Amino acid sequence: MPLRRNTLISAVLGAALTAAVMLLGTSIPSAADKATSTSSDRGAENLGRPNYGVCRGLDSGCYHDWGNFDPAADGYRVLVYSRTAGPRHAHIGPVLPPGLNPPLTPAHAAQNAIVKLGTEHNFAVDWTEDVTQLSSPSRLFRYNAVIFMSTTRDALDDPAQTALRQYIRGGGGFVGIHNAFGTEYNWEWYEGLLGGANYYDHGRNQPGTVTTTSRRDASTAGLPTRWDFADEWYNLVPFPSEVRILAKVDESTLPEGATGGSGHPGHGRNHPVSWCQYYDGGRSWVTTMGHAVEAWTDTPMTGDQYFLDHVLGGIESAMGRTSFCR
């Protein structure tokens, strides 16, 4: 009789707990969930984050193939956007005047590099720092992908924010490079576009070894498993979630370690530098790498060709020219 009574009590308590969970809209984590949530060296980096209220992740069902692009008729075209409202990286050169495709100088290393990639691989490239060029979805739907090249802080006004969101929802492609992570800090939807991640700090620019974690993706298929490169190695808060990590930096190879200027200890054995996801109808491919001017020019730098091949693959997959996020 006591055993039966204990079983009955356990059943009642279990039912009550389940009802409470359903009422609160949460779930009881399984053993697998717990293993996943504690897999990072630094602890609960994926806990307590917003869900961004959109379809996102690795399910291609999150993509909206609504016929807004016709590469057979229009070819492929990207827009490089490098507006800054805060610190400005040397690789994007001096501030550009208003309008579309203003004259570039040799100092505009990153923009010139993307133009060169387009010439070599048969896609057109426009560039601007004029926010009015992003003021409507119809403008943006001219492009198979929009590239945020080390933009900073509030780089978009309200019409441009709305247009970018509608463009992504209509199946647009987004490529975020380096300080695209230091942009629109207070816009939650944009944080989700970055993979549910954001820049927190970094240590000094230093050499390190990049580990290619997925060799199936268009942006990594030709890369070695390990390759040397130098960068600022961004630390992230929040930490990316529901994305495919494409490359990481091996923190054990950083001469000065991964601790950032604001005290972030780094991410241990799980320090991502590039990833991809479907997001709110569109495609998003991002990398925190790309700090050094030499990475974008013909000046020799260890690993620079691997980096440019990586970026090229990311652009082509975000455009829909090659398979995405595999």
UniProtKB/TrEMBL annotation:
<keyword id="KW-0732">Signal</keyword>
<dbReference type="InterPro" id="IPR029010">
    <property type="entry name" value="ThuA-like"/>
</dbReference>
<feature type="signal peptide">
    <location>
        <begin position="1"/>
        <end position="31"/>
    </location>
</feature>
<dbReference type="Pfam" id="PF06283">
    <property type="entry name" value="ThuA"/>
</dbReference>
<feature type="domain" description="ThuA-like">
    <location>
        <begin position="106"/>
        <end position="316"/>
    </location>
</feature>
<dbReference type="InterPro" id="IPR029062">
    <property type="entry name" value="Class_I_gatase-like"/>
</dbReference>
<protein>
    <recommendedName>
        <fullName>ThuA-like domain-containing protein</fullName>
    </recommendedName>
</protein>
